[in-house]
Structures are given as structure tokens and as C-alpha cells.
């Protein structure tokens, strides 16, 4: 089958595996989602959610984040990796949102990526989840799965991976595909211990097939050694 047929098969399998895949970062508005995604860089969603439970109670608006010393905000997010730089970016972001966008997070990709700490991935997440604009945000899970299934080459940049996925996935399925690829990578096709032995996509994954062969060879070697 060609690349689009292969992708269609993968999309159908992922839909069966994770029909309810969704953004796991807790938020109640576009501003909170922007802050949560900014905090999630090099950090798990689980940890971010533990921090934002109290954070979003204390800080409701961009002005709230600017009303405290930077050191206080740093302390509030101390459990998050790179908390010092993230705290600084949050306050810079809030200043721009107030001065340039009347206190509201911009609803355009161009406006979002201009904000400190907000890269292309964060902008895509906010656009798709907060504003309903189809997008494929490529995080570490999406990148890993895309390369293992050979939809992208091992040395492709994140942007190239995104562009390739956008060509293969129907536009109306971009957002849900982003979530399902994340769920697949987070809970099944993990970085260190992928569940290759029960993977319904093993036939499409050369790396998985190599892992299975290596595991089988190791098992045979152990049996031979015991004899």
C-alpha cells in the first residue's frame, strides 16, 4: 500500500485503540492552556497538572502573574523543570498579552509564536484545542511514533515531521490524530519499553520487528545456555 493508504490504516487502528484521546493538560480557557503547554516543555503532563491545580487558583489573569515578584512565581512552579526560565517567560508573555492583546491570548498562530516561551508546538496545541483550528503539534511522542512507523526519516526535524503528517492525514483529522499519536506514544509505543509484542502496527514498524527478533534470539540463547 502507498503512504496515504498506510496512514489510513494507522489512523483507523489508533481510533480503535484510543477513541477518546484528548489533551491531558487541565485548563479552562485559552490563557490557562497556553501557560500549561509552556510549562510542559521537558516535563510530563502529570506533573504540570499537579502544579497548575494551585497555580490557576492563585493566578486568574495575566495581570495576576505580573503582580508578584519573579521569585514568588518561580517558587510556585518549582516542581517544573526549567522553572526559572519558564517563570520569566510567563511574566514576559503576560506583559505582551496585556499591552498588545488587551489581556487576551492571541487567536492566531503568528500572534502566539511571538510570545516568549511559545514555540510552534505550543501554538499548534493552543490553536487546535482552544480555538478549534485543525493542527498537528509534534511533541516527542508524535515525533517518535512517526519515525518508527516510517512516516518520517530518522533525521527529519520536528517541522519536517509536521509537514509530512499534514500531507498524509486529512485536515479534518489533524487535531484528533495529534492526540491519538500522543496516547499511542505515551501509553503503548514508549521510548524505552514499547509494547511491541502486542502492537497491532508491528508489521509496519521495522524497529519493532528488530526488537522482537532480538528478544526471541535472547530467549533462544538463554534456553541453549541452560541446557
From TrEMBL:
Signal sequence segment: none
GO biological process: base-excision repair, AP site formation
Reaction(s) catalysed by this chain's protein: 2'-deoxyribonucleotide-(2'-deoxyribose 5'-phosphate)-2'-deoxyribonucleotide-DNA = a 3'-end 2'-deoxyribonucleotide-(2,3-dehydro-2,3-deoxyribose 5'-phosphate)-DNA + a 5'-end 5'-phospho-2'-deoxyribonucleoside-DNA + H(+)
Binding site for [4Fe-4S] cluster: 189, 196, 199, 205
Cofactors (names): [4Fe-4S] cluster
Molecular functions per Gene Ontology: 4 iron, 4 sulfur cluster binding; class I DNA-(apurinic or apyrimidinic site) endonuclease activity; DNA binding; DNA N-glycosylase activity; metal ion binding
EC id: 4.2.99.18
Keywords from the named record: 4Fe-4S, DNA damage, DNA repair, DNA-binding, Endonuclease, Glycosidase, Hydrolase, Iron, Iron-sulfur, Lyase, Metal-binding, Nuclease
UniProt KW Hydrolase keyword: yes
Enzyme class, first EC level, given as a word: lyase
Co-factor binding comment: Binds 1 [4Fe-4S] cluster.
Matching HAMAP family: Nth
Family as reported in the entry's similarity comment: Belongs to the Nth/MutY family.
NCBIfam families: nth
Record protein name field: Endonuclease III
Gene symbol of the encoding locus: nth
